[in-house]
């Protein structure tokens, strides 16, 4: 199937060991029908030869900003105008820094400045470099401008270390691209999402919470925004930046989350509850720090409102999607939640041992609705979020045909 037929992809390759994967990326883009032109930085040519990419793409590779023959028929302005998408894979720390600061000292960075095509970047570097504050500052700048960051993935690195910094595999990159090139799945829709944990105060310095990182909810908010929707994200305390374009409201406790959801739900078409809401809170939050005077201490807990069930029970309830985090009997428990909370779709994820979804970069989901069960296999949370967005959109449109015609 030629999913990328008619699409012009400018593939930028920068200096890094992962450049060898760009050959496969180029071939697979072509196999899906894309027209590919390759631009390599000088550093990239130390890792893979332009001849390989020329043979695969069927076109000369561009490297020189001031090539005498005007870039073999296309100069940087023509290339910038030609591209439907700019995809830089791998993107080195150096190139990311240049792009963040608008430098245009080689052909690739000049094309990025000269093009208004959406830019996708697949970083690849040593994990310590990736986590460096300067690098993260540059990533922040790019994200704030709407650049799509694909990865990096976590795992063994060529430098011998293990951690975040590997380039995403070519197939994952292509899936992102394909999903991004079919926009508008949720155009004009208003989506409300909850994400992250909640914090239930015991005293001014202590509280009850859980291991949710918020990554899945934030990735989903970003993917739904990319599908054309207006997204409001109500988030518990997390260490994540708001996804580009998403309106984020920060709250702390389950009660605050419930109040904020109820104040915003009337305008939404779809409500997605990804938050790991604390089911109970201390009956009393004491005003001063509790001293360890007694040998034992009992905490009385009271139930928090079930936000998802409350939304689903509304008279004009939006299309409701829940998550079920389960350590055992996943299908059974998730199906029970679908029925008892009377929601439209539930996404169940297993949490146990090293398969834990918490704070992991990847995840898998089992989707259950009234029509049956399907599975989204393990992949990065960003890609999973795009796949889930598609599933939600299809189900929403199936059940709301009149409004969309
Ligand atoms: N949820 C919610 N409000 C709550 C508890 C849960 O909105 N007070 C939502 C979650 O965001 C999720 C779904 O309900 O979408 C299921 O959450 P989960 O914690 O798996 O289940 P619970 O309903 O809390 O049941 P249990 O803890 O017994 O498994």
Which features would summarize this protein structure in a list?
Rossmann fold, alpha/beta, 2 domains, eight-stranded mixed β-sheet, 14 helices, five-stranded parallel β-sheet, 405 residues, binds cytidine-5'-triphosphate
Please describe what this structure looks like.
With 405 residues, the protein is an alpha/beta fold. It folds into two domains: 8-180, Rossmann fold (3-Layer(aba) Sandwich), CATH 3.40.50; 190-404, CoaB-like (Rossmann fold, 3-Layer(aba) Sandwich). It has helices spanning 19-31, 50-57, 76-82, 93-100, 107-114, 127-131, 133-144, 170-180, 215-226, 254-264, 307-312, 330-340, 381-399, 401-404; strands spanning 8-13, 35-40, 85-91, 119-123, 148-149, 153-156, 162-166, 190-195, 200-203, 206-208, 230-235, 247-250, 270-273, 280-282, 301-303, 319-326, 345-350, 362-369, 372-380. The strands form five sheets. The chain has an eight-stranded mixed beta sheet, with helices on both faces. Helix 12 links the parallel strand 16 (319-326) and strand 17 (345-350). 42% of the residues are buried. The model has no long low-confidence stretch (mean pLDDT 92). Cytidine-5'-triphosphate binds at residues 194, 254, 273, 275, 277, 279, 304, 306-308, 322-325, 337.
